[in-house]
């Protein structure tokens, strides 16, 4: 193919892209107008409808014929929905900071850029910020596929009036970040203790002599490395995310250094309002029963009786007395589903305590 032919073909494709972009722009604005009209018709003041957004994303994934993968489709339309939502109101979302944490990544995935971020210093502060009305929503980690449940989040769910209105799953891909460019020069590695554990084998193989220094968060480690190296040139690195590398202007010396490539963290979205059914939902509750043989089996028997699938059972020490426990349960379905409602009614009758934590859409890719 000659240069002239190649140039002509490139121009044809670029002209088509320009024409398609014009159509996308017109359609995006048309969608925004409809979204704004819907906002004007609402009478409850709730801007964010996680059940509706989940339905939209699932429908688009079913319609998608490629070549864009499902994750790309959901990313594009989450951004569109976020910007349309912002025409009604810029939502305020609280999460565990500093910037560059996986909690921020979860908040970005769920709410997009059309939000105001409240960066909190602890999980407790995220709860307090939403409870006090200083934020519309909160995003908190609840469990990791390798490390298990986040006990503090479970304890706060027990005492807080907030409800779970959504869940987000984030694949955890760790990077080694530094101002240096030579991996072999690294003498100290800073990160959260869980991340150090999740990269244990890689560190043993690639940096066996480097000292491992635990800190409060991965993003804090990246910030420390930036400040430390800027000050005295120490040969140190942080285990953190790609976003942390961008935020703190660090080099990525290695990517995907986690020992388990399937490592995933689940986050919960907290709010003061309930969520309607989306068609593919979860319900979470916490319960307790008397300490006697077969008590838990009897307590959960109604789930099987009404064909309700249990996806999680987690025990935590109760705050009221020594060697007493509460049980956190996740089930498939919404509390408004007939079988779920019937099962929970029977569980409540058997339990010494039951608190419904929320019904919410199952995580979308």
UniProtKB/TrEMBL annotation:
EC number(s) stated in the UniProt entry for this protein: 4.2.1.51, 5.4.99.5
NCBIfam families the UniProt entry points to: CM_P2, PRK11898.1
InterPro entries per the UniProt record, alphabetical: ACT-like_dom_sf, ACT_dom, Chor_mutase/pphenate_deHydtase, Chorismate_II_sf, CM_dom_sf, CM_II_prokaryot, G/b/e-P-prot_chorismate_mutase, Preph_deHydtase
Organism lineage string: Bacteria, Pseudomonadati, Pseudomonadota, Betaproteobacteria, Nitrosomonadales
Source organism (scientific name): Methylotenera mobilis (strain JLW8 / ATCC BAA-1282 / DSM 17540)
Domain Prephenate dehydratase: 92-272
Protein's cellular compartments: Cytoplasm
Residue ranges occupied by any Chorismate mutase domain in the UniProt entry: 4-92
Listed GO CC annotations: cytoplasm
Pfam families: ACT (PF01842), CM_2 (PF01817), PDT (PF00800)
Pathway linked to the protein: Metabolic intermediate biosynthesis; prephenate biosynthesis; prephenate from chorismate: step 1/1; Amino-acid biosynthesis; L-phenylalanine biosynthesis; phenylpyruvate from prephenate: step 1/1
Matches recorded under Gene3D superfamilies: 3.30.70.260, Chorismate mutase (1.20.59.10), Periplasmic binding protein-like II (3.40.190.10)
Domain ACT positions: 284-361
Function summary: Catalyzes the Claisen rearrangement of chorismate to prephenate and the decarboxylation/dehydration of prephenate to phenylpyruvate.
BP terms from Gene Ontology: chorismate metabolic process; L-phenylalanine biosynthetic process
Domain of life: Bacteria
Protein name: Bifunctional chorismate mutase/prephenate dehydratase
Reactions it catalyzes: chorismate = prephenate; prephenate + H(+) = 3-phenylpyruvate + CO2 + H2O
Coiled coil spans: 3-30
Claim: Transcription is one of the keywords in the record: no
